[in-house]
Amino acid sequence: ARDWLLECEDCTGGVMLTDTRDAYFQSNPFDYPFGDHPMEELPEELMVFEENPELSTDHWLTSIPVQRCRKYELKSHPMLCSGSTMGTRQGILDYIDSMVNEFDYWSDRQECRSDTVGDDQSIHNHLYYSKQLKNAVAIPHRTGPIHVVGFQADKIFRGAIEQAAKEGYGEDLAAAESFINNVGYLHWNESSAEQVLPGERRKDWRTWLPLEHELIDPK
To answer: How far apart (Å, rounded) are the C-alpha atoms in residues 97 and 103?
Structure first.
């Protein structure tokens, strides 16, 4: 990404690095104002995004690897998502350089190496909270142009599996998970509404899902 961006002389506006599986756009990211100005007007700036408030850097995914490798105590900060980062051209170039340098540091030391999926999250949070990312600002959960829904979606999914198991849709949690995967969570909640007592199933997810799982606009 860095080499491509350096070679693209016409790429002078905002830049976004993101995975796509659980990313949800809340607005056009390249029209999103950063402070009082469009993003491309701000030199060397970077946006990182906070995860669900239930997650913090006390989580083992960040606290343990960073303490072991860098002897740095992250303390209890909002968890930042390493899957989505936005900024100006220079801001993203600086970010990539910082991440690559830190990856090199970790890969050269046995105590820093890990087979755990998600070590980029450890590094991403360490760099931000140790103030090694230039001109970076953390965007509060669900208030930026891009929102990562993975944690919340997984929480809803795991809750549905437990409920399905309690209602007898499978002999155990693995069977209940297979049931939910095959039928679909929303379909399961809506399609059988006429076959059970009122209120146990809801026909239109828009009337219950956002409120039940706090999927509403933050105040």
So the answer is: 10
Chain center to CA of 206: 23
The answer for residues whose C-beta is within 8 angstroms of residue 164's C-beta and 6 or more apart is 170, 176, 179, 180, 188
Which of 142, 104, 147 lies closest to 123, judged by CA? 104
What count of residues does the chain have?
219
Question: Model-level pTM?
Answer: 0.79
Q: What does the alpha-carbon distance between residue 33 and residue 29 come to, in Å, rounded to a whole number?
A: 9
Give the dihedral of Cα atoms 101, 70, 152, 92; nearest 10 deg: -20
In terms of Cβ atoms closer than 10 Å to its own Cβ (0-12, 13-18, 19+), residue 15 is buried
Tens digits of residue pLDDT in 92-121: 999 999 999 999 999 999 999 887 777 899
